[in-house]
Amino acid sequence: MKFLTGVNKKETVEISELVTGTHDRVTVSGAVHSIRDMGDVAFVILRKRDGLLQCVCEKSKSPFEFRTIREAAAVEITGTVKAEERAPHGFEIYMEECKVLSVPAEPMPLPIAKWKLNTSLEAKLNNRSVSLRNVRERAKFKIQEGIVRGFRDFLYREGFTEIHTPKIGAKGAEGGANIFKLDYFHRPAVLEQSPQLYKQMMVGVFDRVFETGPVFRAEKHNTKRHLNEYTGLDFEMGYIDGFEDIMAMETGFLQYTIKLLQEEYRKELDILNVALPDIERIPSVRFAEAKRLVSEKYKREIRNPYDLEPEEEALIGRYFEEEYDAEFVFVTHYPSKKRPFYAMDDPQDETVTLSFDLLYNGIEVTTGGQRIHDYGILLEKMQKRGMTSEGLEHYLNTFKYGMPPHGGLGIGLERLTMQMLKEENVREACLFPRDMSRLEP
């Protein structure tokens, strides 16, 4: 009988250990990223979880057959560590032994060893698990990891509890037609558009909650900014003085995350040549005022008084960058007509809500605001909209038994990543995109 006592100590070492420690003879494992055969000497570049590692094979001294090493093979190499300024990390390994752990069945479909994958987005998505092995492609998702890590770490620090809500429900949180419907044991069900209703219910339990998870929108958009399944970064907080508390909390999250990326993801930022935004302060402007400002400055007619068109969002972003050197701007007090039933109307003007969007370089990355916490007012607003309580009974029961003033937001992770990396298409910031035409891989 055997007993497990914890994580097994590996004999192989990682790049981080080689960088920080003193090593002479080591064993490393990894995938063969590329091979540069110079005749008597060959350079074997290994791809490891924390970067590239250069190994040198002197063929005349090699006790193994060099021809057995192929691109994309998984290998285990033992050798001597020597300083080399021109190599990644400032050192290389002179190979003494090489054990081939696996051999690819076919040549690589994409030249992943190149610095940039000069191929179409479709080709990258069709060969996703391979294209992501490219150093630059992989770096995008390490930065995305940093964004999620910043979100979690910051909210834990602020007293939030992480929750996990169901993604199959009886009724969508946002309403409308953009819902994926499914058969749930011969009963109608939907894929949740957001964790909104559950977040609010849990404010009555934990005061402050957050969640990271999938969001489903059956929107028939085939644009560079829309996905039908994306990752939502959501939080909800109680005992607020106003929706400004929500915007302030998001500002704090962004500041914390930018600092985290600067300190712990510098390698990936440098690989992608990313310049992080300055968010010491974020301007805030009312919806109607934002429309007026860009209409006057850029001579654009206001066509839709109830919502922002993509071109208007871009112009608002341009305006605040030109006037205030700000990449982010909060647009507040959206018309009640375009906000969900649970959005609190402004007591001073019930045609607008105590809500906001956060625009980042002219694209909306966040929607949030204060929610109705009074049971009677919530019912009244639903009745005005011709809504019934069917499918919302448990949600409404929460408010029967008292709820504090509260509010929250939802951030689109892929859009935020796209804007931070200055990508043109949100699919570049999604591991396995789901859109109107793509259900695989």
Explain this structure.
- The protein is an alpha+beta fold.
- The protein is built from twelve helices and 18 strands.
- The protein has an eight-stranded mixed beta sheet with strand order 6-10-11-18-17-16-13-12, with helices on both faces.
- Helix 4 (135-157) packs across helix 6 (244-264), helix 4 (135-157) crosses helix 7 (266-272) and helix 8 crosses helix 9 (310-324).
- It is elongated and about 85 Å long.
- The protein starts with 14 loop residues before the first helix and ends in a 20-residue tail after the last helix.
- 34% of the residues are buried.
Structure summary:
30% of the residues lie in helices and 27% in strands. It has 441 residues and is α+β, with helices and mostly antiparallel strands. Helix 4 crosses helix 6 (244-264), helix 4 (135-157) packs across helix 7 (266-272) and helix 8 (287-298) crosses helix 9 (310-324).
* Oligomer type: single chain
End-to-end distance, in Å? Answer: 42 Å
Helix content range: 25-40%
Number of continuous helical runs: 12
Strand content: 25-35%
Report the order of strands and helices: HEEEEEHHHEEEEHEEHHEHHEEEEEHHEH
Q: Give the overall average pLDDT.
A: 93
CA-based gyration radius: 26 Å
Poorly predicted spans: none
Give the biggest sheet: 8 strands, mixed
Structural class: alpha+beta
**Total beta strand runs:** 18
Overall geometry comes to: elongated
Strand line-up across the major sheet:
6-10-11-18-17-16-13-12
